[in-house]
Amino acid sequence: MAQVSSTRAAEWVLRIAVAGEFIGHGVFSLQHKAGWFDYYSAVGIGEPAATTLMTLVGLLDLFVAIVVLIHPVRLVLLWAVFWTFVTALIRPIAGDPVWDFIERFANIGAPLALLYMIGLPKQVKEWLV
Q: Does the model's pTM come out above 0.70?
């Protein structure tokens, strides 16, 4: 019985960690954090489009946080893994040291660990539950 309790506790730690990351990034994105314009610019996205994208990304990040807290959906977790990887990778692409990418491995690892904890899908339809 202790194992079930420990597993459930670990799941909640990961859910809160992922939600916290996506809430934080979502709010920064909605605030159009000045330093992030450089990341968009590094991949050819100018300021007007970046402003719009930051608003959309911020709303999507908050959506991810809510879903992960209420009921983690595998497809949403897969997106979280992908998105945290991309946002970490954009830093060295924009000229930051590679260590800025490596430092964010926990951001990638938390949703990936949660995805493995709730179970990888065996059928396509399981990505939606």
A: yes
